[in-house]
């Protein structure tokens, strides 16, 4: 991405969206030196094959891998994350599998504000998990 004063949306190479109505990544300049990066629609499915695993744990693992792919494309690291929202179908708040996978993925990075939201359904009936991430990165990255 080149420097610009306007919002840009894009998808990482090999990580197409499931719908033509959105992009995985939005990059918005917020100062001369930094930009706000948003990732949405990171679900537990393979964007190339459209395969969606059947368990919540498998979907969480794949969705977090998709976030990693978006962060790399945008020049972000986990330390740049300023907010996370997780959506879980039929949420069990103390679900040990999701919590363990998420905690391991986040690691020792700064612990950003995070919201865990139980929902009735997501964009497709087989989807059980979605994550949104907001980060601030230096303009020269990504």
TrEMBL record:
Q: Give the highest taxon in the source lineage.
A: Eukaryota
**SUPFAM superfamilies annotated for this entry?**
YjgF-like
Supply the InterPro entries for this chain: RutC-like_sf (IPR035959), YjgF/YER057c/UK114 (IPR006175)
- Spans of biased composition, class Polar residues? 1-11
Return the CDD domains for the record: YjgF_YER057c_UK114_family
- Which residues lie within the region annotated Disordered? 1-22
* Transmembrane residue ranges: none
Q: What is this protein called?
A: YjgF-like protein
Protein's organism: Exophiala mesophila
